Amino acid sequence: MPIIIADIMRTRVVTVEMDDRLTVAKEIFEQANFHHLLVVDEYKLEGVLSERDLLRAISPNLGSSAETAKDLETLQKRVHQVMTRNPVTVAPHVSLDAATHTLLEHNIGCLPVLDNGDLVGIVTWKDLLRTYCEHNEVNESEC
Fold first, then answer.
1. Tens place of pLDDT for every residue, the chain, 143 residues?
2. Boundaries of each CBS domain copy (predicted)?
């Protein structure tokens, strides 16, 4: 039986609002062990903010002795100014193979999972790779 996204997706999804400031996203990334936040507006998926997107948008001088007030201002931008809009998504019934091809085709790191328009989970390239290793009896040290 083929593996589907519903079998491996993470259902505990962390979201931010479109008008949240980047300080909120920065704090979440600093405390969490993941690299993608889903951006919602009234519970509807509007975009994805990756940690890489955040780092590109803020000053590299933050937290250093070279930090200025202007550097701190970069954290006041809103999430919607930096996020990727109209993200590529998958449905829970999509196969692991199809999701993998989608990630590679679009050169992205995660796929929000929507069921009839409702956000129900997220799957990342790490989830896909972990599943591959588990189902092909590959030792973690080899993966």
1. 789 999 999 999 999 999 999 999 999 999 998 999 999 998 899 999 999 998 888 766 666 676 677 767 777 899 999 999 999 999 999 999 999 999 999 999 999 999 999 999 999 999 998 898 887 765 555 55
2. 9-65, 83-138
Spatial separation of the C-alpha atoms in residues 101 and 121, rounded to whole Å: 18
Question: How many Å apart are CA 17 and CA 41, to the nearest integer?
Answer: 6
CA dihedral of 125, 5, 17, 49, whole degrees rounded to 10: 20
| 78 contacts 21 by C-beta, under 8 angstroms | yes
Supply 116's token pair: 């009839």
- Give one word for 117, left, alpha or beta, with left for phi > 0 and alpha for psi -120 to 50: left
Per DSSP, what are the bridge partners of residue 21? 78
| Distances, alpha carbon 16 to alpha carbons 24, 47, 48, 53, in Å | 8, 10, 9, 14
User: What residues contact 126, with CB distance under 8 A and at least 6 apart?
Assistant: none
